[in-house]
Amino acid sequence: MLTEFADLAFARYPDSKDAEAEVANEVKGNDFLRKHKARMIVLPENNLGHFKITLENLSKEQCTDFVGVAEGNSNMFSGVEVNGTPVKDYSAATCADGSSVSLLRV
Q: So which domain of life are we looking at (predicted)?
């Protein structure tokens, strides 16, 4: 869901800060995303399509689900971090209640 907001924002706004602001506005209208402090940060590669999406305070199951999304969509996401640590082996991700997950698209 947040990736769709990000893709639409990039299509509408050539400036990365404007795209980030548009995604922040979309998050405000979604209870789940707002509850988990979802945010998108454009990565500094000077390419608007490169970004990181982070959700915080996830349950163990939600964390595992988001790691699975990254694993199942490797053409869309180049990596995933759990609690700020890059995950190399998705099946070994250390998800627990209260985890944060970042999905990277680079």
A: Bacteria
